[in-house]
Model the fold of this input.
Amino acid sequence: MAAETPSSRSAHHFRWPLHIHISTLFFVLVLLAGGSIAWLSYTRSADMLERAAGDLMGRISRQTVVDTESLLQPVNASLRLLALQPLVRAGTLAERRESLAVLREALLATPAVSSFYVGYATGDFFLLMRFTSDEDRRLLGAPPRAAYVIQSIAGQDGGFIFLDDELAELKLRERPDYPSSYDPRRRGWYSQAMGSRDSVLTAPYLFAATGKLGVTLARRAESGRAVVGADIRLSTLDDSLRRQRITPGSHLVLFDEDRRVVAYSEPGWQPRAVGGSVERPLLAALDGGGLAGLVGQMPALEHSGDLPLTAFKSGGRSWHGAVARLSLQGGRPVFLGVAIPDEELLTEARAIRDSSIAATLLVVLLALPLTYWAARLVARPIRELAAETAAIRRFDFAGAVKTRSVVREVDELAADLGAMKGAIRRFLDIASLIAEESDFDRLLPRLVDETLAVVGARAGVLYLARDGDGGDGLDAVALRGADGNSLPMPVAPSGEAMAGLVPAGVRSAVGELRSGHGTGRSCTGLCEAIGESSLAYLAVPLLDRKQQRLGLLVLWFARAPDADLVHFVEALSGSAAVSVETRGLIHAQKQMFESFVRLLAGAIDAKSPYTGGHCARVPELSKMLARAACAATDGPYRDFCLSDEEWEAVHIAAWLHDCGKVTTPEYVVDKATKLETIYDRIHEVRMRFEVLKRDAEVACWRAIADGADAVEARARLAGEWAQLDEEFAFVASCNQGGETMAPERVERLRQIAGRTWLRTLDDRLGVSEDERRRKPVIPLPVQEALLADKPEHRIERRPEERIAADNPWGFRMAVPELLYNRGELANLSVARGTLTDEDRYKINEHIVQTIRMLAALPFPRHLKTVPEFAGGHHEKMDGSGYPRGLQRDEMSPVARMIAIADIFEALTAVDRPYKRGKRLSEAMAIMARMRDAAHIDAELFALFVQSGVYRDYALRFMQPECIDEVDERALLAQG
Done:
């Protein structure tokens, strides 16, 4: 059916513009309601302002004075109590710390106070300050959990002691320079308090502890030998004044007799600190106008200083203000100024509001019949359009919009809404189809197909920009016909020819090309493929968020498309460009992450020759076993399958299963002898034997020189040398790792260790500060044991390197007390291999670090299983593995697969310098014994054997000479 034109609609409907209907109706209503409300507001507000202003301002002024004085009274009361405490008579730091609980309670009772302290006549000082921000902790170098700090001067000793919420000591920082740099007796608060029997309040100054601006309230103790003080930051007074504001626009200020600001309720007044003094702004210099005008109304401060409620004008506004003197015993006079704009004084404005509402309701009720009739006439088509809009909001685009109205604008809106429904429906159809496709290679032709189906083009070509060409180099990636089939790619016009169709900054281009014409932009092949002699084109660039060209979409028509279709394709190209860019970014990010994973695995393998290509081969074997499980048609894995996203998780987990090895020191992994650390310390032991041999030779010659028989002396020397040579050979043999270490060999080691040698040089010279702290100071010369377990050999494990019982990862590993034990006897006495318990834990800890590292990565939802997959390859089916001690049912099938792959690769690897690769039959026999011991999954091992995965892997990665026959029946029959 032909669409209805505006002229045909005019023949059926007599219409007026909507603004005439609405303006006429509301003009009458607003005229009546506005006049009534204005008259009532005027008569009531004039009377109310005169009556309310005086009472309200007086009440505000009195209440502000009470609130401000109540801020300081608890502090004064706390000082009175503290001045009677044993703290003021305590002579040592230990005695003073006994009063910490009292000081803490005083701080808790007075939120305005940042610290309480005592200055002693002896020059001693004791302060407890609470931390209210991380900035304060940073200024004093406090630990993160510190809640309080003690600053102490006791005689010549000074330091800071950081405490937690329960006053438990966290850290002690000694400050030898503190007693000389800070003398409380020279501080202003001390001298003022000593000169008065009452509490004194200082002028604002910079606090010595934090450098923050504030005032001190101080009081002399009854004994006269100490002064108790409390620091109040000016920011606390600012906050207190801010809380006392009755109206949003009221200003409150504390100032001294010099009319300089002490505290101000408005932010940004910022006093300046010059050297050790503070330059505070004058009251007249404050922003806001009210307080500046109040200055001109104030009397001389030498007298009472009080100013009753006064009206004045300032800054083009009317104000009421007052000044009150605060009575603080022993301190300089402090005054409180209050200024409130007159427009905020009308607390009875609710009466005007209620009257206005009543008047408005009365007017509306009087005009209701007329309004009801007119609203019915106008609102019906609007309601219908609202229903159509609600359908659009529900993504219901079925049916045409049939609403008609006597209002021209509503009628035109209905027509436009119908057209919009059709456009959105087509647009969302294409957008949803694009969003559904996750494969980038399948997305591109599908994008062209859906666009052709909507716009009715004969063919379409999608070009993508080459990397690094700035969008000028284009390659055709999809050429589709109207029937949804691909056309031969060679018939597509070249990307170089199409790149210039749309100039930079233009959203689209429309034109026509003929077959056989134009050498630069020929479409001959395309015209022949679809049977046309000429084609019109619509070229739309695909731009990314930076307006750089991602590609070009060229649609071919039998005739030039109209403007509406061009605009639609331009809008569609934005969604297509976002989809192409997003999928491209995701594809590039996956490639980058894949490269990073392989880089990390390669770095781990390259870090130590003992790992070889382990990190690259385990993923291959893991995926081979997973594919066998997916292919199983019977048995326990007949229903096992993995989605594309799960395969990605398997791939990443297998590549990163040993990523924690980056934290394992090479000298532990590669420890070839028992005394080896970064170098083999057997050389130190050999040198001590050499020293003993030289000592024996020196003793021989001295004996001869003293008249002993030379032959006997030389014979005795030869015997001692032979014994030392033999003992060193024995020690050197113990340094080599073996399967066992007999108890008698350990006993002989201890006997040899009983030999002593003379050391005359200080072994604390030239060493690191860490080693120096471990070495005790021993007077020289000293006789030392030939072999020893010294204090410096014990490397303590820091608290953060321990594993808490309630750790979030569920680790259940026994953690050795020491980080490293490098004792010579302890290492040489290792019964099996070369590793101590500490060394073995450090190597095993790589799986702990693997889980921690992977758990800290923000994996997307489909990769959340990566830490569990990668972190279980050292677990055993009977729960005796590590680090979590999981049993079979607590592990996923993939984690159990990676465990088998990890073990089999390690058994068959030929690139380990410390062992030869085992033959295939030997490796499978060992795996079978591990199955029988419930170390690996029996069902997966059966699949490993029956599927032939082990042999496929062997043919790819093992040396031909290591591949022999395997009796699969015997393997499956065991256990």
In short: The longest strand covers residues 317-326. The chain has four domains: 63-344, 437-570, 608-667+836-973, 682-828. The chain is about 45% helix and 15% strand.
